[in-house]
Amino acid sequence: MTETTDLAPVREAVRALCAAFPGEYWRALDRERAYPEEFVAALTKAGFLAALIPEEYGGSGLPMNAAAAIMEEIQASGCNGAACHAQMYTMGTLLRHGSAEQKKRYLPAIARGELRLQAFGVTEPTSGTDTLGLRTFATRDGDHYIVNGQKIWTSRAEHSDLMLLLARTTPREEAKSRTGGLSVFLVDMRAAKGLGLTIRPIRTMMNHATTEVFFDAMRIPADNLIGTEGEGFRYILSGMNAERILIAAECIGDTKWFIDKAASYARERVVFGRPIGQNQGVQFPIARSYIGMRAAELMVREAAALYEAGKDCGAEANMAKHLAAEASWAAADMCVQTHGGFGFAEEFDIERKFRETRLYTVAPISTNLILSYIAEHVLGLPRSY
Ligand SMILES: Cc1cc2nc3c(=O)[nH]c(=O)nc-3n(C[C@H](O)[C@H](O)[C@H](O)COP(=O)(O)OP(=O)(O)OC[C@H]3O[C@@H](n4cnc5c(N)ncnc54)[C@H](O)[C@@H]3O)c2cc1C
Fold it and tell me: I need a labelling partner for 193 at 20 to 30 A (CA). Which of 242, 277, 304, 323 fits?
């Protein structure tokens, strides 16, 4: 499946921008676990982070496959889109379920780069993958909601103005359906910091700006509820397909980066009087990675096309994410092996990308849960959890 629209100009423009942010830039930030402010500012200024915002709100109104191409090229250039990818995938919830008033209030400012929507608060320490078991509670109080609870792994919260928050608004046992009783809010963190909102960074094995977030009687205007109270899980699920497609595209980009790096090194590195890439033991793993990447790429394109057509793409988005995350992790391992000792040297960037791409078989959804989804929803097997 070739790309249905000509995305070459978008791809070239992203590559050109990323060329100004080479390995040294990312290594320096990685050592300090610092946020890539200049990179995010450049992407914002060029309009890439507003790719999915409709033109009437100041964005470029591009389809999902263009957004996926942007994220892929960022990773394939050796950069790290994790610093800003959430703005792309949280957007779907606001676009599809936000009111006209909410879109008018937030989207143009996001498109102009004055507001960042980079934080997505779903996961909690006690419930983990069992999203329906989350405990953060928003209680209606006149024209506000009062929020109490805690999130974990809320990435980029310190570098975002807005957070898309999933909270319970009806106790689980009183909800009308199994998935009912959860609601989505757009939280203006600028107004809430110090007034019931506390953000604590979590240092991880890679530079990811992730945090834990505490809500202690944090007030949110009722106007910031997205859609209908109690329907939030459904809205988040539809947004998650976009998230899976975009993360899968990032993994494709990573896989391409590892393959390029490994193939170039295997052509040039001479041991025993010949290039190491002349040995099948070295070239086969690279070829295997390439095959895995191409197969995953096809599934990403299929999922993006279905998403864009407004069709159900749950299975394809999950399969795309699974194939692409497995491909990028396998390629990362292959790239280290191909480089021998140099694979571990910081200046080659491989160990950094290796740590970064490791995340994606765990987050935003872990491999087991994707397999469970396919078993239950595609193969009709009994629900296992
Ligand atoms: C760096 C980082 C950034 C993140 N960013 C965000 C973010 O911005 N916003 C956000 O909301 N979340 C974020 N997450 C959270 C991420 O989505 C979760 O870590 C992920 O979904 C797994 O949930 P968990 O960590 O609670 O694992 P758990 O749910 O505790 O699961 C642990 C392990 O058990 C397995 N498991 C659990 N239940 C089953 C079952 N029934 N069958 C088979 N296997 C099972 C899982 O597959 C997993 O391997 C981030 C996580 C990390 C590490």
Answer: 242
Distance CA 56, CA 101 (A): 13
**Residue partners of 291: CB distance under 8 A and separation at least 6:** none
pLDDT given for residue 4 in this prediction = 60
**Which token pair is 19?**
């060329």
Protein residue with its CA nearest to atom 25 in ligand 1: 128
Query: What region does 209 belong to: left with phi over 0, alpha with psi -120 to 50, or beta?
Result: left
Q: What is the pLDDT of residue 1?
A: 65
Say if residue 179 is exposed, middle or buried (CB neighbours under 10 Å; 0-12, 13-18, 19+). Answer: middle
Q: Are 180 and 233 in contact (CB under 8 A)?
A: yes
Q: 360 Cβ partners below 8 Å, 6+ apart?
A: 247, 250, 251, 321, 324, 325, 328, 329
> Catalytic residue positions?
243
pLDDT of residue 239: 86
Centre of ligand 1 to C-alpha 365, Å, is 6
pLDDT-flagged residues of the chain (< 70):
1-2, 4
Is the beta carbon of 364 within 6 A of some atom in ligand 1? Answer: yes
In SS3 terms, the chain reads as CCCCCCCHHHHHHHHHHHCCCCHHHHHHHHHHCCCCHHHHHHHHHCCHHHCCCCHHHCCCCCCHHHHHHHHHHHHHCCCCHHHCHHHHHHHHHHHHHCCHHHHHHHHHHHHCCCCCEEEEECCCCCCCCCHHHCCCEEEEECCEEEEEEEEECCCCHHHCCEEEEEEECCCHHHCCCCCCCEEEEEEEHHHHECCCEEEEEECCCCCCCEEEEEEEEEEEEHHHEECCCCEHHHHHHHHHHHHHHHHHHHHHHHHHHHHHHHHHHHHHCEECCEEHHHCHHHHHHHHHHHHHHHHHHHHHHHHHHHHHCCCCCHHHHHHHHHHHHHHHHHHHHHHHHHHHHHHHCHHHCHHHHHHHHHHHHCCCCCHHHHHHHHHHHHCCCCCCC
Can you give the pLDDT at residue 113?
Answer: 94
CA of 128 to the centre of ligand 1 (A): 6
pTM above 0.85, yes or no: yes
